[in-house]
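ok so i was messing around last nite and threw this chain in just to see what happens. nothing serious, just curious
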Amino acid sequence: MSSETTGKVDFVIGSETYQTSFTIYGDLKRSQYRPVVILHGGPGMSHRYMLPHADLWTQGGRPVIFYDQLGNGSSSLCLGAPLEFWTPELFLDELDNLLRSLEVANDFDLLGHSWGGMLAGQYAATRAPAGLKRLVIVNAPASVELSVQGTNQLLSRFPPEFVSIIRKHEADGTITAAEYLSCCAQFHKKHFCTLDPWPQSLIAAFQGVETNPAVRRTLMGPTEFDITGTMKSWTTVDDLHNIACPVLLISAPQDVTQECAVLPFFSKVPKIKWVELQNSTHLAMYEESERYFEVVMGFLNGAPGA
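result:
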């Protein structure tokens, strides 16, 4: 079963018109299931590494909408945009625009991974979208401060000389040094993706960040161990009680996004199911795909309000 549609929708900001690139698997008009919109991670990646979620269509019959967030992939890159251009609200507005343009705003599900899960949670908590029926938050923190706290807890488990290399190069601003990059790679292999080698789509996603590094560097900063970008104080914790739809929260004990960073979702969202996947880290759709999609499909196919 295959049906793939690609296109772009205009996204107007002030006097400028940008474009959001999308790919749809399935038929939005004829399917018996509402579509699920996929928010990729980053900031600065594209939807390509999230394509395993096309299984929601090929195996489950549910239309899937992928898109590249502004500044990424095949959407407008906005090279040279001022730093203040890049805000979480920009991406929430883009999501609103996409939903309206594709005429699904009245009945849809969201699935956000990592940074995409942060956006999805903020969208559900602050914009009260009546058409949002189910929300899946995957490996995403409820606040940047808690995310950094958890990441550094994991870092502290490495040998002292390993941590010293990380700290030294961050302090000196030499994060392109070979030994620093080697340490980051070791950290990622243990807490980001345990597969060896990594899937090519994931490698390409990482490389894609450098196409427009301003997006990630403005919002988060150059490293993951000390967030210095404009989102360093970002949090949705105080708004999570406003999420009205059922939520599925997916995490993993060895994920770079630690339990302390996802716990506020479970504590504050009224209708939530929390699943910890034991055999994966940050990318269960690759590392533990069978179990991951069993959990996701089961939730999306659940009874209304459950």
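not much to say yet. The chain has one domain: 4-300.
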